[in-house]
Amino acid sequence: MRSALALAALIGIAAPARADDSARGADSARGTDKGTLGVGIIVGEPTGVTFKLYLTDDRAIQGAVGSAFIGGGLQLHGDYLFHPYILQTRDSFVLPLYIGPGVRLIDYNGGGNSSAFAFGIRGVIGLLFDFKTVPLDAFFELAPVLEYKFSSGAGFQTALNAGAGIRYYF
After folding, report:
1. Alpha-carbon distance 27 to 18, whole Å?
2. Model-wide pTM > 0.70
3. Shortest CA distance to 131 belongs to which of 33, 56, 19, 44?
4. Residue ranges of domains in the chain
5. CA 152, CA 83: separation in Å to the nearest integer?
6. Phi and psi torsions of 31, nearest 5°
7. What is the pairing mode between strands 116-131 and 74-89?
8. pLDDT tens-place string over residues 33-65
9. Contact of 37 with 17, CB cutoff 8 Å
10. Can you give the pLDDT at residue 110?
11. Is the CB of residue 120 less than 8 Å from the CB of residue 79?
């Protein structure tokens, strides 16, 4: 619960820092009618709800909360994204590559008394289909994770997150 409150506070702090629509201009790759906050679903690891808040045209904060199928339990993650390369630009969409650092909190629930908590850092890389004519984007991402698991067998371990999803922008 504390993690969800921390993420909500981060969103509230970052919201005033977003780029205003006039700074984007008519030549923006994302289009002028699209909002800066997107909310949607992610399927994979985790499966749940995702959000993305654009700070500028090429920087954003994204996160997700959902069910973790590997190890079970609940996962929460947040990333700071850079969109350094645009692979394709068409009349209907832009295809940028995105990368960035992030953090992950997970409550493993293996059943019975084998639950454990882990905190980790992740590096995300993904492709984004950013549609120009509708306020939607679709994405696919991979994120290797290095985490510290707090349990009787405490220690560092690696994991891999992979997901695909869609978001609607307000």
Report:
1. 18
2. yes
3. 33
4. 2-17+33-169
5. 40
6. 95, 160
7. unpaired
8. 689 999 999 999 999 999 999 999 999 999 999
9. no
10. 65
11. no
Distance CA 19, CA 34 (A): 12
What are 23's two structure tokens? Answer: 């700074």
- The position carrying tokens 């980790």 is 120
Convert the chain into a string of H (helix), E (strand) and C (coil). CHHHHHHHHHHHHHHHHCCCHHHHCCCCCCCCCCCCEEEEEEEECCEEEEEEEEEECCEEEEEEEEECCCCCCEEEEEEEEEEEEEEEECCCEEEEEEEEEEEEEEEECCCCCCCEEEEEEEEEEEEEEEECCCCEEEEEEEEEEEEEEECCCCEEEEEEEEEEEEEEEC
Which residue type sits at 111? Answer: G
Pairing outcome for strands 116-131 and 47-56: unpaired
Q: Angle at the Cα of 8 (from 6 to 12), degrees rounded to 5?
A: 115
In terms of CATH architecture, what is 2-17+33-169?
Beta Barrel (2.40)
For 18, list phi and psi in degrees, rounded to 5.
-65, 155
CA 9 to CA 88: how far, in whole Å? 35
At 66-124, the pLDDT tens digits run: 998 877 889 999 999 999 999 999 999 999 999 999 999 999 886 656 788 999 999 99
